[in-house]
């Protein structure tokens, strides 16, 4: 089991779904978790569940540069460092290409793409001083295997996938690792509230959908020294969904 004792980790979108479970799991492994959420009251609620000695609630709208700067500064003032960034927050809009508006597409870019970009820029100067850091981008299998009626979403995820690889090349010499996790169909509020049929498992070789803890465990691995030589790595967590057909 990964050892994250006293590692300081910022998780975005930590108030629900995968982000909430990731935050709790990392804290259980010894990390100090900065719980990032747009609504500070929700961040405070999750922090209380984790334990105030193990977490710090931070208000963070990932589409706002000022929020990033204030959140990271708060973490540095509290813990004197930031070891890991988990870019988890994201937006899913499922519409046909012709029904997707310019506003829809721009919103997806702002959250899924620019949010990750600004996060990397916000933590990198601090990690560079430490000559060590881990950035984990929670992407999607849609970055390489798009689902129907989600072209704009897939495009933003593909952009993050390539941004992550480029960042891994550029930041590696500074001691900063950048890796990605690609979840498949995971039982979350976001998935349930979309029109995805999370109970249709016939196309998944393992014949089951994933759970948020499946993503949390992979995230913990990439945050820890157990993955010290992983940089630019992509870990697919989809039960074999994107392997092809078993017919």
UniProtKB/TrEMBL annotation:
NCBIfam families: PRK07231.1. GO terms for biological process: bile acid metabolic process. InterPro entries: NAD(P)-bd_dom_sf (IPR036291), Sc_DH/Rdtase_CS (IPR020904), SDR_fam (IPR002347). The keyword Oxidoreductase applies. Belongs to the short-chain dehydrogenases/reductases (SDR) family. It holds the Pfam family adh_short_C2. SUPFAM superfamilies: NAD(P)-binding Rossmann-fold domains. The lineage of its organism: Bacteria, Bacillati, Bacillota, Bacilli, Bacillales. This is 3alpha(Or 20beta)-hydroxysteroid dehydrogenase. One of its GO terms (molecular function) is oxidoreductase activity. Keywords: Oxidoreductase. Transmembrane segments: none annotated. The keyword Oxidoreductase applies. It comes from the Bacteria.
